[in-house]
Design brief:
Elements (H helix, E strand, L loop, with lengths): L3 E9 L4 H4 L7 E7 L2 E5 L9 E4 L8 E11 L3 H11 L22
Antiparallel strand pairs: 1-2, 1-5, 2-3, 3-4
């Protein structure tokens, strides 16, 4: 099995981040990049999933700040896609909240 790297892509959500970042503060968006695709979670009015896929480092309305290597995995692209597809129903677009979304337990197995 081939190992592939997994990255966290971090974006600024506001112009004040340039000043706040130096103090360890700011408003940020992030996405996980693997196999040349970036996956993230965001809001929407539909009852569908808030999990979306974009080209890496290209989130709308955000300014790319940095990429952080999270590590490597030994999963095929189809295995990664399967995991993402199983997570999608647990992350509804209308349930997204910038501060409290962490309360729900993830179940990906």
């Amino acid at each position: 099995m081939v190992q592939t790297q997994v990255y966290l892509n971090v974006y600024d959500l506001g112009a004040n981040n340039n000043w706040l970042h130096g103090m360890g503060l700011g408003a940020y968006h992030s996405g996980v990049e693997i196999y040349g695709r970036e996956y993230s979670f965001g809001h929407g009015n539909s009852g569908g999933s808030g999990v979306f896929e974009i080209n890496p480092r290209s989130a709308d309305g955000c300014v790319f700040r940095e990429q952080i290597l999270l590590g490597e995995i030994q999963l095929s692209i189809s295995e990664v896609t399967s995991i993402i597809d199983r997570l999608r129903p647990q992350f509804k677009a209308h349930e997204y909240h910038i501060l409290t979304r962490y309360e729900r337990q993830w179940q990906w197995r």
